[in-house]
Amino acid sequence: QTYHKLLASPFPFPLGLEWYQVRVELTVTDVNDNIPEWSMVPAPYLAVVYPDATGGSQVYKLSARDGDEGLNGEVEYFLSDGGDGRFEVDRKSGQIRTTGLPLQRDREYLLTVVAADGLGSRSAPAIISVVAGARPPQFTNASFTIAIPENTPEGQP
């Protein structure tokens, strides 16, 4: 809450000769002008889980932020598609966990998750790739560029 002092006169300014101080209490509230945005790095969002993982095993931790205050900025997480019932998302913490249903070894499960603020503004969907087993090495960029001076000694990084 913000307090401001205002001067008031019974006559239009500048004719008023008498001024009165009035305390006016103003409540300033935030407008819901932001949507939740994902803050997980790096993208794409990749995870692995043991094929024999028990129910409740943590797979991935989602994180989104909303620039608004109060209810407008409180973020909840929702699994909107994928996982065949084998994964669940904790609405408050954003943790993805196994449900206890059996996982198929070496299968990739694609989970689509959205974050929403207290008034229902939604983020863009995030796709989390979960492999039940070993994941082969993957590059996150399509290409990498490095520069090596021509006078670099052999065997030096």
From TrEMBL:
UniProt cross-references to PROSITE patterns, sorted A to Z: CADHERIN_2
Domain Cadherin: residue ranges: 41-139
Record keywords, A-Z: Calcium, Membrane, Transmembrane, Transmembrane helix
Subcellular location: Membrane
UniProt KW Iron keyword: no
Keyword ATP-binding assigned: no
Coiled coil: none
InterPro entries attached to this UniProt entry: Cadherin-like_dom, Cadherin-like_sf
PANTHER family: FAT ATYPICAL CADHERIN-RELATED, PROTOCADHERIN FAT 4
Name used for this protein in its record: Cadherin domain-containing protein
Source organism of the structure: Ilyodon furcidens (goldbreast splitfin)
